Amino acid sequence: MIKSIKGFNDILQVETATSRPSSEWRQLEAMLKQALDQFGYEEIRLPIVEETQLFARAIGDATDIVEKEMFSFTDKSDPPTPITLRPEGTAGAVRAVIEHNLLRGDSPKLWYMGPMFRYEQPQKGRYRQFHQLGVEAFGSEHVDVEAELIAMTYLMWQRLGIDHELSLEINSLGELDERKAYRSALVDFLQTQKEQLDEDSQRRLTTNPLRILDSKDPNTQALLMEAPRLADFLGEDSQAHFEQLKTYLTALGIEYVVNPNLVRGLDYYNKTVFEWVTDKLGSQATVCAGGRYDGLIGQLKSIGKSEDKAKAVKSEPAVGFAMGLERLLLLVQAVNPIQAQPACDVFVVVHPDLYQQGLLYAQSLRQARSDLRVKMASASSLKAQMKKADKSGAQLTVILAQDEVENGTISVKTMHTGEQVSQDKLWLHSAENFRL
Ligand code: ATP
Ligand code: MG
User: Fold this and answer.
1) Which residue from 72, 170, 215, 341 lies 20 to 30 Å from 410 (Cα-Cα)?
2) Running DSSP on this structure, what letter comes out for residue 166?
3) How far is residue 237's CA from residue 231's CA, in Å, rounded to a whole number?
4) Distance between terminal CA atoms of the chain?
5) Residue with the nearest Cα to atom 8 of ligand 1?
6) How far, in Å, CA of 203 to CA of 301, rounded?
7) pLDDT, tens digit, for every residue of 17-44?
């Protein structure tokens, strides 16, 4: 028996061990899209595969994603092109924005939703194919954008009834030169106690020292208590930016915690980073994460350019976040489950000998009433069809047998009362007679 690949899950019409039912996905997506529309963000749809070097250059070589989580292949061209299933969406979005010149005279606010791929150990809330909503706002260096994005996510939590289960952590990473100065101070400090660091952190000391800050190792964390603090290396501009964000959040009534160890796993961030975390999902605590990445556009524009030319390339400011939809659904399920909605409004039951009449009736009803979901069962016995009508959750069942067809009528049964009346054949075709 051929089975799905480990960490790649089916999303079915019913609940499974690894996924919520598709009806919940649709309701969640609809609710998220409504909020995106309200804030004036526009949808883009991007390819699932990109050239490997796009991710290596954008995300950074010394990150978990690029070091060990990418699904990478070569295609059949000569010479073969290294390609990768997208592990996240920002790199592709930035590639598209540059390729299509979307920043010329505009500051697009964009979103996308879809599958991402990472080679990780599958467990609850962590899969090899998972889904993200990604949002990216380009062209503004002002902290208003961070406030807007956080306000949007907060509204989403409120609508889902999970705002009390998520807390907002924020930090500022400063600008590149500020971070560089901090990095060497941190490395100088940690070098002296290298032996006491956990193995990963020892390696990171040379590859990506800032990531040591989010080490889970208690010894390392204890050492870090005495380490220099990034906040002390921020310049005036970075500090003012961060203070303004706090002011906006307070005005919006959004509580936050400053987490000085929040550095995020990707290299492209500067100034603001943030995460929405919950204690309801074990170690898969982060539901949504993002930040500012003012240098990434310039960085990707410089690929293939000489050092001199690369220096002349202008970047463009940008801020974004990504939300893990599986984790969001798990949290919603744990805290405020989405109410199942019946998948049917009207069920048409027809005598097996008169199936064609039923087919035509249901078709004309759907044509007249686009608001109605009209379901039929195959031409089994009336009794078997009535059973299916019961199970369908329909409000009304229309019954067509010999008498009805001869008289041009329908029998309409109201399912929750069991009451059945005879009506004109076109009675349901008018929205006046049956409003949802
Ligand atoms: P984690 O620390 O949990 O590995 P991350 O920092 O790697 O998360 P991001 O790259 O910031 O995650 O992705 C944004 C969001 O996407 C995460 O907060 C999470 O909700 C979701 N996500 C990331 N990786 C996975 C995965 N393998 N399975 C399911 N959801 C994921
Ligand atoms: Mg990860």
Assistant:
1) 341
2) -
3) 12
4) 45
5) 286
6) 30
7) 999 999 999 999 999 999 999 999 999 9
Distance 231 CA to ligand 1 centre (A): 25
Q: Which ligand does the CA of 130 lie closest to?
A: 1
Measured from the Cα of 284, ligand 1's closest atom is: 3
Write down the CATH number for the domain with range 346-429: 3.40.50.800
For residue 324, the ligand closest to its alpha carbon is 1
For 69-95, the pLDDT digits (tens) are 999 999 999 999 999 999 999 999 999
CA of 286 to the centre of ligand 1 (A): 7
Query: Pocket residues for ligand 1 (CB within 6 Å)?
Result: 88, 118, 120, 125-127, 130, 132, 265, 284, 286-289, 322, 324, 326-327
Percentage of the chain with pLDDT > 90?
Answer: 90
Quickly state the pLDDT bin for 62 (edges 50, 70, 90). confident
Which residues in the chain are classed under CATH 3.30.930.10? Answer: 22-175+235-335
In the chain, list all ranges with CATH 3.40.50.800. 346-429
Q: Is the pLDDT of residue 267 over 80?
A: no
Instruction: Kindly give the distance from the C-alpha atom of residue 329 to the centroid of ligand 1, in angstroms, as a whole number.
Output: 14
CATH number of the 22-175+235-335 domain: 3.30.930.10
**Tens-digit pLDDT profile for residues 176-186:** 899 999 999 99
Model confidence at 408, pLDDT cuts 50, 70, 90, reads very high
Higher model confidence: residue 176 or residue 323? 323
% of the chain at pLDDT higher than 70: 100
CA distance 304 to 132: 30
- CA 124 to centroid of ligand 2, rounded, Å: 13
Specify the amino acid at residue 33. K
Token readout for 336 is: 């405020």
Beta strands in 24-166 (DSSP E): 42-43, 49-51, 71-74, 82-85, 109-117, 129-138
The partner residues of 113 in beta bridges, in order of sequence, read 133
What is the spatial distance between Cα 202 and Cα 193, in angstroms, rounded to a whole number?
10
Question: Which residue's C-alpha comes closest to atom 13 of ligand 1?
Answer: 322
User: What is the C-alpha separation between 120 and 129, in angstroms, rounded?
Assistant: 10
**Residue 21 backbone dihedrals phi, psi, to 5 degrees:** -65, 155
